[in-house]
Here is the input.
Amino acid sequence: MKTTILAEKLKQISSFRPYPIVAFNPSTDLLLKMDFTIANNSLTSKIIENVELFSNYITQQLESKGAAYGIGGYDEHRTVYSRSKVFDGANNELPRRLHLGIDIWGPAGTEVFAPLDGEVHSFAFNQQYGDYGATIILKHQIDEIQFYSLYGHLSLANIQSIKKGDQIKGGDLLAHFGEPNENGQWPPHLHFQLMYDLEGNFGDYPGVCSLENRNHYLSNCPDPDYLLGLIQYAK
Here is the structure.
């Protein structure tokens, strides 16, 4: 399956060591696995539809467990997208509810580092309610494989000091988690996603799809944990 190509390539390169995308020490820090499916009864519509309550919910979850960050979401069918018309179905499609990236939840201002070398492909301020807000897309090449990484819900300042074609080194400080007023009105977090093909998009790519399009999008968007290597630490 196409989505496994990147994982197999990374396994073949024994010297390949992606840089941490956030400051996380698995020997001392706790990473909380978070659930945004219908199975999470504590996440009510009242909370989801109010960004302040939603942000407080995330903060309380992390603090109650003493977690440095929350994480999860790839191939997860989420109820939270009912909060925005951005995820309503179009052209007779089902509403979009299946998450295509991994979210890392933490305080606004959290530093985001490039996990590997790349160049700035594009960036944009996707400012609709519920959208990505400030967004950066990097282009990468590992041997014959070209792919892209997307960083969503960033600080607006991070896209005001870059330009298309900028060279980014692995480990470089790339961005910061944005405040709700600049990140699409979400609790502060990073949406990290990989794509083989941007399909004509610039500064944007769907981070959520409908169930009827699941196979197409999962094929084009491999599991970001192939690079992050963080889910193994989530509790």
